[in-house]
Write a structure and sequence with these properties.
By secondary structure, this protein is mainly alpha-helical. The protein contains eight helices and no strands.
Length: 227
Amino acid sequence: MVNDSLHSELGRLKEEILKMGRLLEEQVYKSVKSLVEKDVVLAREVIANDDVIDEMEFAIEKKTLGLIALKQPMAKDLRLIATILRMIIDMERMADHAEDIARITIELYEQPYIKRLIDIPRMAEIGKEMISIALDAFIYENMDKAMSLIPMEEQMDALYEQIFRELLSYMMQDPRTIAQATELLLVAGHLERIGDHATNIGEMVIYVVEGRRVDFNELARKKEDNK
């Protein structure tokens, strides 16, 4: 009976995490959309919704800690609860990165862009997809979905390096571009970190299912070495 009650509570927590995650996906998408379209109203919406995500994190944390105190979970249930507590931290940090991008939108609003924004929206699309996959992997405890984040993170890293090189060349050619290029590089950095946090969630899925800790970066390096 206790287990049934615990599992019902965990099911409800998963639903709340999914709701938080869907809002997070929107935040990432809208933050970069606001940047590309110079939409200050949308940027301010992203900034305001960061408080909503903070409140969601606090509510989930409170309920999760309550389960530990009242239900005394064991084994896999305890791993799941520990994972939830770590996950919501990663999700809140992803939301912070989206908020930072929205603030850069406002800062650059009156400036013509030094280049057309192409790779930054690509990074945002991949980051949004990584969040969705990480959430599905967690909800359904699907290790294959979790592992599929590895090549996506590699794509994010490659795009970041490409943006870095391109913006560096602009700065070297014309020092007047340095301030804006630096801000755009920060945007790419925020998106790269969003990918890292999504990958962290994928690693936690492996921990929930099998009770072992893995480092996806290490797995990627081993795969590369074996080629």
